[in-house]
Amino acid sequence: MLNAYPTAIDVRRACRSGAFREPTAGQCPGYTQTNLIVLPEKHAASFRTLCERNPVSCPLVGETRGNGDPRFRTPLGEDSDVRFDAPGYNVYENGKLLHDDIPDIRDYWQDDSVGFLIGCSFTFEQALCDAGLTPRHMITGANVPMYKTNYPLLPAGVFRGEMVVSMRPYKRADVERVRDITRPYVKTHGEPVAWGPEGMKQLGIHDLYRPEFGDAPEPLADDEIPVFWGCGVTPQQVIMSSPHVNGFVMGHAPGKMICVDLPVAAVLSS
Amino acid sequence: MLNAYPTAIDVRRACRSGAFREPTAGQCPGYTQTNLIVLPEKHAASFRTLCERNPVSCPLVGETRGNGDPRFRTPLGEDSDVRFDAPGYNVYENGKLLHDDIPDIRDYWQDDSVGFLIGCSFTFEQALCDAGLTPRHMITGANVPMYKTNYPLLPAGVFRGEMVVSMRPYKRADVERVRDITRPYVKTHGEPVAWGPEGMKQLGIHDLYRPEFGDAPEPLADDEIPVFWGCGVTPQQVIMSSPHVNGFVMGHAPGKMICVDLPVAAVLSS
């Protein structure tokens, strides 16, 4: 995959100008990548509680400044505007998808909108590459496959729903190394949540080749198994499962993340 | 229920002297109550990660001082000894229950033992009483009923297992108030995880009158439903589900908590 943008602000500026509309895997290595969900202020407290109770799928890394200001709180990035800084956006109205992968959300951002940034597993992919365990989708140049599951989140206020997971195939003999490498990245999903056919059964994933988000994977080799991580698309699934969440809600297009100025070291556990 | 001990240190001293061997619900209102799990140092890092990934059932409030010192880290209590400070203890050997509700663990504590204190839902019961929603087991003087579930924890290192929950019956019309009252207690399980027949189904609880821990509840009234919270007995269930955890592991006897000097306000979310 083309690694065109060395820093997070380079990626954000390329998104803002419209020059970059692709998935962000492999971009700005060494920087943290984040998922976005934009909610009305009245749901902000419930959403923070949802993140606190479900930190594996919804690790809250930061927020916008409040009062409708679309800039991140520092130190996520001084020159920022969540309305334009992802390569693509989804828009929901009353829990139903209204727009898929549009270039910006200027027309939907409200005076009381708050943007929440949730850690993304792309952040630990460089560490997997460094260990000779390069994720398959980085080799094929595809978007990572993501799946709805039947694993219920622990409810919080108005929010309820099921976890979304991302998948990378590995040999079973490599799973413990993959767990060890990704475990410290507690703010970007950490170690896998499940793996193998037993993991698919536990999560209620029936067809590996029909992911709900991202690209379908190429066929796994005979000695490979799917390995699943919590995924920050989860809040978008939650929006569609929470009947009391009305009005416009916005998120990034899955795989097209907001890159922030936090170095990877800042999201590692001590 | 007799409220014999006004402060946490009073409860601990009564346990240490052997004078108090009962469940601790209703004792030292205004103080935090905690579950205990004692592990060998080699599993401590994995256990901290388990708590970080599963904070609703395993909210880590504190630890002992390390290097086999059985005293809490301050500010949990200066005059403390986890080997004696609960009214009763369970002991496990190689994942199997060896002793049930013995008065102390002096014979099993090791040079490398670390005690972890996990928030207990008894901590928010005074707030429910203050709102006229007194938990049933406080009225009947029984131990709270606790159930194994089939809700998988998110794995961490050597640890895997299923959540244990506690149950208090309420009218369905009161559930939103009960949720609101308990939600801020993020370090003592917070708001319920599930409720009603639909919650029993989700958690895989088949018989409300046969809990795995604590006392069986009296029959619910026609207009009542069971309301379930995460429970700090979960780590003991984890020990029995994690095949790579060997040697002696100790915990409190379910319902017989270690009371610590932290005021309730210290475990409330801001």
TrEMBL record, chains A, B:
The entry's keywords: Lyase
Pfam hit, one: D-Glu_cyclase
Keyword Translocase: no
Keyword Calcium: no
Cross-referenced SUPFAM superfamilies: PSTPO5379-like
InterPro entries named in the record: D-Glu_cyclase, Putative_hydro-lyase, UPF0317
Gene Ontology MF terms in the entry: D-glutamate cyclase activity
Gene Ontology BP annotations: glutamate metabolic process
Family, similarity comment: Belongs to the D-glutamate cyclase family.
PANTHER family recorded: D-GLUTAMATE CYCLASE, MITOCHONDRIAL (PTHR32022:SF10)
The protein, known as: Hydro-lyase
Organism the protein comes from: Filobasidium floriforme
